[in-house]
Write a structure and sequence with these properties.
alpha/beta; N-(1-d-carboxylethyl)-l-norvaline Dehydrogenase, domain 2; 2 domains; 11 helices
Length: about 400
């Protein structure tokens, strides 16, 4: 099986660890969509270098693919790409590590290689990305690839296209999006035949080689989950979707509030809560986002209960504690301490004059609140400020870096 990873700092980090973990019979490809930048710098020996704490390690036999743009001749391929032309070959597993804003266009350029047997891993913490993709690129559930949503907490940067510096080690949580075709990937969690303490997620609920007539349809998903779960150096965990949804929301809040504070204050992460005013601003955002989550939670819960005609209802479930104000503020403080010397991604985007991820960060959270009638004046004001600054492009004088 071949695992494709979109080229980026995180993608290169993942490709290195995939190559170190997988048996040699499985292939790893870095898909480089910015060939004008990458293609000139890649040597043909397909070596990926990982630098961490000053130590440089190498992984061989990582292929670099340069998908052709429309109108390009097939002869225009890189010497670093595999000998055979990969551009028309089906993709079994694709790990998406580009920013959410670029995900739809990137996948659209590869859509001729994707099928219902493919698996797409959204390694972005970009809630709302999946919903956008299934309404625009994959509206037919019967023709839709399998999807995994993942939340990475590692940071890295590229010295060269094949040399990644892993400057902050964290963890990765992922969950499988429920199957629109009806297969229950978490069946063991509801099995009365298995003691509750032994109900860990298992690959056989995805696909069972021994007695599954549809094994080929789910093989890529099973294999992708299996290899992600083996990336011990990256601290990867497979979570049930109900638990994953809470984790993804918490991570999204941390990233969105960090970005907003950084754009307003122009400071590294460790200084964003250094004054009482900045802390009050962070707390105001957290309070509003918590209110949006409460509105969403109880509206959806009431809708679910209204559909339960008859039957005895238990006590009303509470909003998960992980989405409470104290928990979210605690997440933010811990993140800023761990990343104190780092600069938030949105501030870097502003300084470079590139598109920010507002739509999939603070803007996404604001839309949740607006959709459920929750007032979010602070969040709204910051979104408007960020949009105004973004519209100016790269400023002549902004903030010292």
């Amino acid at each position: 099986m071949r695992f494709h990873v979109l080229h980026s700092p995180l993608g290169t980090l993942l490709a290195y660890h995939l190559r170190q973990t997988l048996p040699s019979k499985h292939a790893v490809s870095l898909v480089c969509t910015r060939k004008d930048v990458v293609q000139k710098q890649i040597s043909p020996n397909s070596v990926v270098r990982l630098e961490h704490s000053g130590v440089i390690m190498s992984a061989r036999n990582v292929d670099f693919e340069f998908p052709r743009s429309s109108g390009e001749e097939s002869s225009e391929t890189s010497t670093a790409a595999p000998a055979e032309d990969q551009d028309s070959k089906p993709i079994e597993s694709l790990i998406v590590t580009v920013p959410p804003t670029y995900t739809r266009s990137t996948l659209n350029s590869l859509i001729h290689r994707l099928s219902p047997q493919s698996t797409i891993v959204l390694m972005q913490t970009g809630l709302g990305v999946y919903e956008k993709l299934v309404t625009t690129l994959f509206p037919n559930p019967a023709r839709r690839p399998h999807f995994i949503i993942a939340s990475p907490r590692h940071t890295a940067w590229l010295k060269r296209p094949n040399h990644v510096v892993h400057n902050l080690a964290g963890s990765i949580d992922f969950s499988i999006v429920p199957d629109p075709r009806g297969r229950d990937y978490e069946a063991i969690l509801r099995s009365s035949d298995v003691p509750s303490l032994d109900r860990g997620l298992r690959l056989t609920d995805i696909a069972n080689k021994d007695d599954d007539p549809r094994f080929a349809e789910y093989a890529s998903l099973r294999n992708t989950v299996a290899v992600l779960s083996r990336l011990d150096e990256l601290s990867v965990s497979w979570l049930p979707m109900e638990e994953g949804e809470v984790v993804f929301r918490r991570d999204l809040v941390v990233g969105a509030v960090t970005d907003a504070l950084a754009v307003i204050l122009g400071l590294p992460n460790g200084e964003l809560l250094s004054t009482s005013s900045s802390r009050k601003l962070a707390e105001a955002l957290i309070v509003e986002i918590h209110g949006a989550f409460r509105g969403q939670w109880f509206t959806e819960l009431r809708s679910h209960l209204a559909g339960n005609k008859g039957g005895r209802l238990g006590p009303m479930p509470q909003l998960p504690k992980g989405l409470g104000r104290k928990a979210l503020m605690g997440d933010l403080v811990r993140h800023l301490l761990v990343t104190k010397e780092h600069t938030a991604p949105m501030l870097r985007d502003m300084q470079m004059g590139t598109r920010t991820q507002l739509r999939y960060g603070l803007g996404y959270l604001f839309e949740i609140g607006r959709g459920y009638g929750i007032p979010m004046p602070t969040t709204s004001a910051l979104c408007q400020t960020i949009r105004a600054r973004e519209s100016l492009g790269q400023p002549a004088k902004y903030i010292k870096t």
